[in-house]
Amino acid sequence: MLLTISDMLDEKGLLETHALIETLRWRDGAETAGSTAKHVKHNLQADLSSRTGVKLCKQLLVTISAHPVIRAAGQPRRFSEPVVSKTVEGGAYGLHIDNAHMGTGDSRIRTDLSYTLFLSDPQSYAGGELVIERAGETLSVKPDAGSLVLYPSSSLHRVAEVTRGARLAVVGWIESTIPDAGEREMVFDLENLRASLSPQLAPQSAERLILDKVIANLIRKFSAA
Question: Which CATH class for the 3-176 domain?
């Protein structure tokens, strides 16, 4: 399942995010890559250890974790700390697979879903598409600033070379309460059905109660211990 959420950050949210990012320091992105990915990772990564960086992380996590589509599609248990990346002219991130686990100690999570939150106007840079390999097809996405792309962490993916301008993005990972992608998609389909039928069904109608029951029991059945 690949989803593009177009309203993750509105204009005000984008302006606030950019204002915070402008004060951050940058380092070589390869420093934080795995043993294989570091050979194909050619970008910059923001140092988020400052007070401003901590504030930015908190704001991003609150916004992303509260979005109804993230909650319905991801059934999140935990979120990683977000990563802010900048890819300038000549930079790219070659084909790779995300690590199965991210973080250390209590913050260590299993990566079921990955996301990229695009922060740059697509007209301000050339290249920089997020390219995701799936069985029998290759998907290339470059949405508007403020849009978030959610996709399975199990997918091979890359960031195409930026040939003009600079690409700013936030990336992160979600550990789901439902590890199996097929079961997670089944619940998401039912959540969408419930949302579309809500205007037509009274909260205590038999149909709505049965649908609520099925969704709750499937989540209970599919959830990891």
Answer: mainly beta
